[in-house]
Each structure stands twice: as structure tokens, then as C-alpha cells.
Amino acid sequence: MVHDLFTPSIQHTLDLVGIFVFAISGSLLAVRKNLDVFGIVVLAEATALGGGILRDIVIGAVPPAAFTDLGYFLTPLIAAVLVFFLHPQVERINWAVNVFDAAGLGLFCVTGTTKAYSYGLGLTSSAALGVATAVGGGVLRDVIANEVPSLVRWDRDLYAVPAMAGATLVALCIRFSTLNAVTSGTAVVAAFVLRLLAMHFHWRAPRSWNRRTATVEVEQHVE
Amino acid sequence: MVHDLFTPSIQHTLDLVGIFVFAISGSLLAVRKNLDVFGIVVLAEATALGGGILRDIVIGAVPPAAFTDLGYFLTPLIAAVLVFFLHPQVERINWAVNVFDAAGLGLFCVTGTTKAYSYGLGLTSSAALGVATAVGGGVLRDVIANEVPSLVRWDRDLYAVPAMAGATLVALCIRFSTLNAVTSGTAVVAAFVLRLLAMHFHWRAPRSWNRRTATVEVEQHVE
Amino acid sequence: MVHDLFTPSIQHTLDLVGIFVFAISGSLLAVRKNLDVFGIVVLAEATALGGGILRDIVIGAVPPAAFTDLGYFLTPLIAAVLVFFLHPQVERINWAVNVFDAAGLGLFCVTGTTKAYSYGLGLTSSAALGVATAVGGGVLRDVIANEVPSLVRWDRDLYAVPAMAGATLVALCIRFSTLNAVTSGTAVVAAFVLRLLAMHFHWRAPRSWNRRTATVEVEQHVE
């Protein structure tokens, strides 16, 4: 079965790690937006669980895992409490948070694609839903915080491409019947490393062609 | 069966009252945001039904009750029409709207928890989904209106805590097999009174510790 | 069966046309908001598929058609690529985009209502869900782009009314057992023409009564 890539306990531990780091990123945004402790908890839960809940509802796996596994619900709470009390210290290790977030991104795009395929979706749809699982929580976080999602802003380092690379690798492995713990682990690492490189070299996605001619005056004031 | 707390007709009437007052709060925000009549209707429906639709989709109770019971759909329309024609008068009784909204909050956190449990969720998850049912409509209202959700703003009176208290009481009653019309009614009243007290005494939730040292200059300009 | 209004291939072609034009409108907003190429793709997919995915989740038709039919997923990608490379040219034919968007609106309100009814919803709920299918993608587009949804702004031409007219016509046809390719085609055309007229004559929806007395000073500064 394709959704047992690792032993259940390893898979579960990796899930919780991904959920934890996504929750840290949600909590930090809540503090920066000057929200209260419930804002921290809401953004922690939404960022960590939003992508997975969306995936499970789309594939019909209800109630979503986030509501049947208590650990999925409690882990973001721990992250929120940590950020609540130790905010300056967490900010100071922001690079570490970014590294963990990259790990979560790699993990979620792979498990999202695999779970979607195991529920009968086609390969392309599975990869698309895997990407949505990985980036969905972050979009929900930014929508609730009333910000333009970091995912779609041109002045942010590539975030979707690493997830797309990881999800595509998994889909190819499924297509050629070579999906196992090693190949899916490779896909996780590929997405993880791609995201680290994008952050290190500030790789960015292009905006539409011929846009500058039309908006050059506006941009002079904005930038 | 845990989801028959009251006689069906009483339960249904209470649901409609909660839906109505939530719809009033959505309609009022639409008028304040200068939206047109469809904005009033959209925010009325979203505020009143959003939490329940989310709950029903998560637990797999589709189509959601909001789409099978015509009264659930029509009640927000009546609230929207009332606010459309009588906006200044409704604003003038804003304290009454707040009292009814508190009643809706108490009712929805209890019925949400109970319904989630009756669909097989665990106690903690049921309570969490009960809180989400109670506050979800308000978050959706604020997201559509392009505002930071009132739920997560530090300068608003406590809203989540009363819902959490009510949902927790219900979960405890289920745990000790004492859930009936009296105990669940007590949970509704507890959440209701807590919310009234929070409004009266302007109880607010704290923001993260050590935040001030970092943001004191910014706040001087903002506040 | 009510959901086979046209031959499957005609129905499918019409769906793809509607999806394509909605995706163009999402892509154009992404360019105007200065988003990168992923922003263009995300808004294209969200605008084109959001309404249908919401409808399918509500009626329990999971996985939604958007995830089982590859054409539904790829069509918005084509629209996004077109806008990415040919943005000024697409802007220049904006009137054509608006005409196609009106066609998508007419089509989606009719197919949404029909599909909801075929999954067992009542007539009123089916019509309401049909309207939500037609306008839902646009609301999701605006929420992700961090704008007040165009649907609810008083300074935009009527958008909901044509969809409501089309959905109501379909519901009446179902009620009187006269729904067929001709009558549902008529409903599509009625909604389409109504939307064109609303754009041509700048029909707008009223805001709440007695609003001006309260907000006149504010508006003098805003407008």
C-alpha cells in the first residue's frame, strides 16, 4: 500500500514535526500582527492543520486526521505556548524555524500526494493536492491574518516550486512503481534542499511579461 | 442519544434564534463596511451558517443542515432585510444584539460539541469543533469583509474563552455520562453569562510576553 | 435524470469554457496585484474551480470533479500562461473577458443548481448553492488577493442578481418538470444577458436605507 511509506511510528513522528514547525510559523506571525493569545493559538492550529484538513475533506477522508488524532491537535498548542512565553528567543532562531518549515514543506508535499493517490485520485491531481497540502496552511494563515499570502508575493523566495518538485517526484515514483521509503525520503529531501537553496540565493519567481511598461510609474513610488 | 438534548422543536427554535442573532451581527458589519444589499445578505448567511457548515463538512454530515433545512437558510435573509431597512434602529439596540450574540455563542458551542461527539469524534476534538462551530461564522464574516478577525484581536473582549468553557463543560458531562437537557442548558448559560461578564468588565486576553520591549516604538505611533 | 441537460461532450465543453474565462479573470487580478507567476496560477485555479469544489464538498460529491477530471485542472493553467505572456493584449480585450465571464456566470449558476438538485437538495437550497457555485470562485479570488470581494461592493455592477435569476429559472423548471436542454439553455442565456445589461447600464444594488444620514461625513472624505 502506497500510504505506508515508513513504519507508522516514524511516519507519525515526522507528521508531528511538520505540524509543530508550521505552528511555530503561524504563532510568530500572530505575535508580529499584535494578536492576543487566542490569535496565536488560532494561527498556530490553522497553519499547522489547514492544509491537511483541506486535503482530507477533498478526498473524503472525514473526519480529517486532525480531528481523530489528539496529537495533531495538541502539538500546535505546544508551539503556541512556546512562542507566547519565549517570543524573542524564537525570533532569534528564526533561521532555524525557516529550516524546519522547509522540512515540513518537503514532508507534507510527499505525504499529501501519497495519501491523495491512495484515495483514488489520478497522478496529476494527487500531485496538485500534495502541493495544496503543503502550502494550504500558510495561505490560510495569511488570509486570517489579513495579509496577501506570502506564497503569491513576488518579493518572497520560492516556496511553491520545492513543493511541486517533491510532489512530482512522488507521482513519477508511483507511475513507475518505485515508491518506497527510500524514494519518498529522497523526494522529501529534494524539496527540503530546494527550499533551502531558494532561501539562501533568494530565488524568486518572475512576474508577468510586459508588466513593467504598464506599471513603471506606480512601482517607482511603491518600491 | 446525545444529540437529542431537548425536544426537537425546542432545539430547532434555539438553533434559529442563534442563527438569527449571528446574521444580525454579519448584516451590521456589512452596513458599516458600506457594502450593498448583497453584501448584507452574503455576510448574514456566512456569519450565521459558516460555523455549522464547517462542522458538518468536517464530521461528514453532508449535505450540511444549512442546506437541508429551509429555515436555516431563510432566517439570515430575514435578519438581512431587517438591517437593510432599519439599520439605525438596530444599531441603537446594539447592546441587545450583543446579548443575543452571546446567547448564540453559548448555544452553538454546546450543540456543536454534542453533534461532533455523536458523529464519533473524541471528547477533546468534539470540544474543539464545538468552539470552531461557535466562532467560525464570525471569523468567516471578518475574512470576507477584509478585516482582521475580531476573535484574534487583542483589543476585543474575550470571545473564545466563554465558548471553550461551554464546550468543556459539555465534554465533561459526556465523559461522566451526565449530559441531559439540564446539564447542557447549564453549559449554554455558563458560556452566555461568561461572555456577558467579559463584555461588561472588558476582560481581554494577554498578548505574548516580552513583546513590548521589541515593539514599543511601533505601538507609540499606532495607538 | 436532471443532470444530463446536454450531451455529455457539449456539457463538458461548456464547463471548460466557463472555467477558462473565470481563470482569465483570476489571472488578470493577480497581475494587477503585482503577484508572481505562482500568484497568477493560484488565483487562476481558485477563481475557476473554487465555486465547483465548494458545491461538490457541500453535496458530498467527493473527490470534487475538479480533482477527477484532468481538463478542469489544466484549463486554468493554460489561462494563467496566456495572461503571463500576453498580459497587455488580454487587458486590451477586457470587454471580451467580461463577456465571457458573464457566460461563465450564466453557465455555472445553471449547472450548479442542477447538480445540487440531482444530489437530493431541495429546490431553494439547490438554487442557493447554484448561485454560490457561480459566485464562489470570484469571492475566493478576492479573499486570497486580500480585497473586499467585488461581489459585495456597492460600486460594482450587479453580479449576484443574474446568477439568482438563472438559478431561480432552473428551480422553477424542475418544479414544473420542464427542465431540458432548451429551458436550461434559456436560463443560461437569461443570466448571461442580464449580466451584460447590468454592465452596460451600470446597474447597481442599493445600500441600506438611512445609511447616508449616519455616514455622510465619512463618505465625503472617502469618495
UniProtKB/TrEMBL annotation, chains A, B, C:
Record carries keyword Membrane: yes
UniProt-annotated location(s): Cell membrane
Primary location recorded for the protein, binned into one broad class: membrane
Coiled coil: none
Keyword field: Cell membrane, Membrane, Transmembrane, Transmembrane helix
Transmembrane portions of the chain: 12-31, 38-58, 70-86, 93-113, 119-139, 159-178, 184-203
Glycine transporter domain mapped to chain residues: 13-87, 99-173
Pfam families on file: Gly_transporter
Keyword Cell membrane: yes
Taxonomy, superkingdom: Bacteria
InterPro entries in the cross-refs: Gly_transporter
GO annotation, cellular component aspect: plasma membrane
Bilayer topology: Multi-pass membrane protein
PANTHER family listed in its UniProt record: INNER MEMBRANE PROTEIN, UPF0126 INNER MEMBRANE PROTEIN YADS-RELATED
The family this protein is said to belong to: Belongs to the UPF0126 family.
The name this protein goes by in its record: Glycine transporter domain-containing protein
